[in-house]
Amino acid sequence: MRTAYTADQIRGAERTLMARLPEGTLMQRAAAGLASVCAHLLGQVYGSRVVLLVGSGDNGGDALYAGQRLARRGARVVAVLAGSKTHEAGLRALLDAGGRVAGPGDTREIDAADLILDGLVGIGASGALREPYARLAEQAGAAPGLVVAVDVPSGVDASTGRVEGAAARATVTVTMGAYKTGLLVDPGAKFAGRVELVDIGLAPYLPEPDVAALGRDDVAGLLPRPGAESDKYRRGVLGVAAGSHLYTGAAVLAVGGALRAGAGMVRYAGAEEPVAQVRAHWPEAVITQLRRPSVDDVGRVQAWVLGPGLGTDEWAHELAASVLASDVPVLVDADGLTLLALDSALLRRTAPVLLTPHAGELARLTGADRADIEADRLRHVRAAAAELGVTVLLKGSTTLVAEPSGAARVNVTGSSWLATGGTGDVLSGIAGALLAQGLSTYDAASCGAYVHGLAGRLAADGAPLTAAGVATAVPAAIRTVTSGSTLAENLPSRSRER
Ligand SMILES: NC(=O)C1=CN([C@@H]2O[C@H](COP(=O)(O)OP(=O)(O)OC[C@H]3O[C@@H](n4cnc5c(N)ncnc54)[C@H](O)[C@@H]3O)[C@@H](O)[C@H]2O)[C@@H](O)CC1
Ligand SMILES: Nc1ncnc2c1ncn2[C@@H]1O[C@H](COP(=O)(O)OP(=O)(O)O)[C@@H](O)[C@H]1O
Ligand SMILES: [K+]
């Protein structure tokens, strides 16, 4: 499990640790880690050109001491001093090691640098970058050299991943002591590149994490496996109420995701056209063609997926009411979410609910602005879970899962190739199958997102994928998780994305 923390949480832990150590110890640990990552990236340090962007706080101090270490090894280091003040001891150390200084207007060196160390601001930042920081951050991101962000990319809010205005786009972020939430959640995660953690001895002093990201071993431990005593009913029967005469594909894809993710049985219930399609694609599914909008005669299931391609007419509304009147967990997606937005009384039930909106659907559900949701995903998914009293999985470039209690997880698998029609329907089938197999809404959502993201990577392998291809890749993704292949790790590295 990868855990991440807000800036305040990190500060609290650092204060406790710092009080037990001689002054400056933590900064030297940070600088040693930074210099080592930079040296590794450069290959040859001697003769390389390194530019330090130095802000007025300790983030700049880290950069200066790292610059000192690189200068001692023969790098040509220039510090661009951007703040109204500079970490004095760090600056002296750099100059003593042969480094040079430039003012914030003298930025010619940036474009010629092999490596730019972004030490403008770290966890002490507040609000959008001011000038000249904003200009320098953008210039660094656009320069041909490698960009290494110190602790967090400047301009990214360490606690939330928000980016208001300019931010430094890093190749690698070297973060101190613990991951910051903003490095795992978009848009911040996009700017962070690959994240390297430097151990500065903070771990024993950290509180409960702000968010967690399940790792391969966590998912392997949670995924259900059939035992000797299993039969198809005990493994978990999933009901799927999806598809309509207009949208037959959504039903096919949701059923496919569910079958591939190990449901003991899938009972599909729908109208004539999607029934014909599901029957043609999945002879394994047990099908009920509905004559009226009710699932009363469908047979016993352990969980439902409701909504993909269902439509939002009166028939769909009544069918949704019938599914939600059951006493088993229900995953609501797509048109099911629109129906909930139109009639919140549908959500009055005691059995568990998992909602799987993208930002637009969440906006419809909560009345928040879609752009605001995209900008501050974690806050919005938490607020929705608390307000609605259900588990919410927010889809998009980073998938987040939140509980009404405020607990939240971020998914670190996935691929931007997944941004294509129908992949969400497959996810609903996968997570639904996990619900039917007995996982809680929180675990089904988190493991479902993990497996779906991995299946997306396998299906894409660097080229466009289709939603059906993602469903096909689900067993291979599960095998990757349970066999311990390293494909599932090395995350969250966008640069290594397949
Ligand atoms: N506290 C510690 O024990 C350690 C801190 N470390 C480093 O210290 C950093 C935190 O240092 P600080 O608390 O000094 O804070 P920062 O260096 O992150 O930033 C604070 C400075 O930036 C300015 N600033 C804030 N928001 C700004 C904005 N939007 N635009 C322009 N300037 C802005 C402030 O006026 C202040 O001078 C960490 O991110 C990490 O890099 C590490 O050395 C590890 C140990
Ligand atoms: N840029 C992206 N990077 C990674 N995953 C993405 C991105 N955009 C979308 N996805 C994923 O693709 C899926 C799309 O689902 P959804 O929006 O419901 O589409 P559809 O309704 O067409 O199935 C979700 O799992 C989402 O998290
Ligand atoms: K920084």
TrEMBL record:
Protein name as catalogued: Bifunctional NAD(P)H-hydrate repair enzyme
Protein residues bound to (6S)-NADPHX: 58-62, 122-128, 133, 151, 250, 309, 358, 425
Subunit organization: Homotetramer.
GO MF, one annotated term: NAD(P)HX epimerase activity
EC number of this enzyme: 4.2.1.136, 5.1.99.6
Gene this protein is translated from: nnrD
Membership in a protein family: Belongs to the NnrE/AIBP family.
Role, per record: Bifunctional enzyme that catalyzes the epimerization of the S- and R-forms of NAD(P)HX and the dehydration of the S-form of NAD(P)HX at the expense of ADP, which is converted to AMP. This allows the repair of both epimers of NAD(P)HX, a damaged form of NAD(P)H that is a result of enzymatic or heat-dependent hydration.
Cofactor: record remark: Binds 1 potassium ion per subunit.
GO BP annotations, alphabetical order: metabolite repair; nicotinamide nucleotide metabolic process
Residues annotated for AMP binding in this entry: 395-399, 424
Keywords: ATP-binding, Isomerase, Kinase, Lyase, Metal-binding, Multifunctional enzyme, NAD, NADP, Nucleotide-binding, Potassium, Transferase
Domain YjeF N-terminal positions: 10-208
